[in-house]
């Protein structure tokens, strides 16, 4: 899952949110350079990624993109899951998604000094362009797919990814629904464990 899902699955805990959002830029044991509550967010992010990659619905969705994008198919599906989460009427209305996005940026600003430089640079654009909200639109999703390609070492275009997204929209939506039904409760259970660990050391 991408930024929106990681933010949402931090369940409003500020330090876990900070760690969850920066985790892709914190490699290996570097997580121990951070305060323990942020470490828990990094651990939650890694748990989410492992669960997502191993889910049968994700594997099915990745096959749509694999012929053209190979190893990057998973990163493209992460973006597309965020689109369907943003559109999921059981989780967000347009108004509540906008409010959630603003609350998330406000919480993250309190942890700016802990942001690795690459994420700190992203964060300025994320907030200015309201990435979390614009996953709701196909235009915003297309921009995010382009961002995956821009950061990739061996890819040159995202038009094919966007075409596949539109062409296989219903199938991808079904994959998201199958995935999300199990993902949210499983991640909440892991979040609760991490939160309890924090309480025991505070």
What does this structure look like?
The chain has 202 residues and is an all-alpha fold. The protein has one domain. It is built from eleven helices and no strands. The radius of gyration is 16 Å and the shape is globular.
Q: Whole-Å distance between the termini?
A: 30 Å
Q: Helical amount among residues, as a percent range?
A: over 70%
Give a quick account of the main beta sheet: strands, pairing sense, barrel closure. Answer: none
Number of helices: 11
The structural domain count equals 1
What is the 3D form? globular
Order of helices and strands: HHHHHHHHHHH
Q: Uncertain spans, ≥5 residues at pLDDT below 50?
A: none
Radius of gyration over C-alpha positions, nearest whole angstrom: 16 Å
Average pLDDT, all residues = 95
The strand count comes to 0
Structural class label? mainly alpha
Portion of residues in beta strands equals under 5%
Give a quick summary of the entry.
The protein is an all-alpha fold and 202 residues long. The chain is built from 11 helices and no strands.
Helix and strand arrangement:
Layout: H1 3-8, H2 14-22, H3 36-54, H4 56-69, H5 73-87, H6 94-109, H7 117-129, H8 131-134, H9 138-151, H10 159-167, H11 169-201
Helix pairs in contact: 2-3, 3-11, 4-5, 4-11, 5-9, 5-11
Key terms for this structure?
202 residues, mainly alpha, 11 helices, 75% helix, globular
């Amino acid at each position: 899952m991408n930024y929106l899902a990681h933010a949402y699955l931090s369940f409003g805990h500020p330090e876990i949110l900070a760690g969850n959002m920066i985790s892709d830029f914190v490699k290996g044991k570097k997580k121990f350079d951070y305060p323990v509550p942020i470490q828990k967010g990094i651990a939650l992010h890694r748990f989410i990624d492992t669960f997502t990659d191993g889910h049968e619905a994700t594997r099915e969705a990745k096959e749509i993109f694999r012929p053209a994008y190979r190893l990057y198919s998973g990163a493209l599906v992460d973006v597309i899951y965020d689109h369907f989460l943003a559109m999921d009427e059981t989780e967000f209305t347009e108004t509540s998604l906008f409010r959630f996005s603003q609350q998330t940026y406000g919480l993250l600003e309190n942890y700016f000094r802990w942001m690795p430089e690459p994420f700190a640079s992203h964060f300025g654009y994320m907030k200015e362009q309201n990435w979390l909200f614009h996953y709701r639109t196909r235009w915003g999703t297309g921009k995010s797919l382009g961002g995956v390609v821009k950061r990739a070492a061996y890819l040159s275009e995202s038009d094919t990814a966007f075409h596949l997204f539109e062409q296989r929209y219903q199938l991808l939506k079904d994959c998201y629904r199958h995935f999300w039904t199990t993902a949210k409760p499983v991640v909440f259970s892991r979040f609760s464990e991490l939160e309890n660990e924090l309480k025991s050391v505070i």
